[in-house]
């Protein structure tokens, strides 16, 4: 039986309600679509552009755009737009504290204005106002993009007419702004992850390179140590370094002479290596590392152009090689110094030993590998005292291992194979930084001891004659050394007493009586032979002899006086010839 009080039927939905439901459905659909896009963020700009597009569509706005906050300078830069027709808005950068966008960022709250000109005066700026006016914007609604505690940006919709934005409008735009925040945060996280991955890869690569370089340096160090222990000198050091650096290597001594080379190096690489370039790359595209010890420069390692760029480990390897090479150079120097002292002692024993010790000296020479029979010449060198040790070493180096060189009675004395000639003396002088007077002679039946005594006597006479920086054969001096002696004052007095009057006459009158006297002495006091030698008439020579009688006094042609005068003439000629030879 039907009820007596039936339920009244529900009223049919109105047109506004249906429109609202449809609008709400479209909004939810758009939000769900936007949410799905967030799960696969690949192109940040594309997703943000799609969000701005939805904001314009869902809020039926003329313009929509998104401004991103810049943490560096606190500006807000427009990143995505929809409906904008001017470049000024699409490229707008709002300074801190200006525009509606700054007010939203500072308050972290949505803001809407019915008319933009109602925004507080202090918020206006010429650039922002020009962009808004150029776009024709009147009403605006903006909501912040938040990521506690930061503001990422602001999402805007705008109208070119007055419009009052409802709370629903604000809620919808805020939902889209939340999606945009997720996009920016995800993009930032991905960018940071990529940066961290890049940093990790770079760190791994750097560590790998460092380990490889360290292993290479350790390997080279072992090779250098092995080279020192094996006693192979500097050649293995050059070889190990050339292999490690893939570069030509030259090692020079303190004089710039090449001691070792490898890796295809040539002499040009070593040229000027000890010049004012230091431990640096110079104009020759090479790296020079000095071998130093106690402030002394013992040489240098020169590295040519490598097959690959040198890194810090390579440069430390070069420095380590230079230290090893310096130790080797010091070791070689110590060995050479000990050998020099031993050979110097042998030289002194050889030229001073008594007959009773001759057998012991001969035995010591054999142990040192020196053949006494090959020592057929003796040379004595006079130099200033502070240069004597350096001269002894230079002479020993020049004469070679078959010679004996030492210091004796203030002279440098050498016993060697062949008497020095002018060419050998000139070559030796190139290695000396001081003047040197040398007297050389051959060994006769009296042995090296007698020859050493003779050259020392001859050297004393040469020094008394005032000779300097010259090579004098001992045979030239010996006839006079035994009779005249080596007292310089007495010798000069003898020469002046004998020839001074003639020399002063020639200087005053421009004559050449001294030449006539020399020819007269050389030709046995014969006026005829003297005239023939000088291509003069005999009467001319007789006239000159009369002038000499007046200068030298009567009786100068007597046997005793003539002998003394002959000695003076020959000594004077010898001095002049030696001085002329030294000057040439």
From TrEMBL:
InterPro entries linked: CdaR-like_regulators (IPR051448), GAF (IPR003018), GAF-like_dom_sf (IPR029016), PucR_C-HTH_dom (IPR025736), PucR_C-HTH_sf (IPR042070)
Pfam family, one: GAF_2
Gene3D superfamilies linked: 3.30.450.40, PucR C-terminal helix-turn-helix domain (1.10.10.2840)
Source organism superkingdom: Bacteria
Chain ranges of the GAF domain: 43-194
Protein name, as recorded: GAF domain-containing protein
Source organism (scientific name): Microbacterium algihabitans
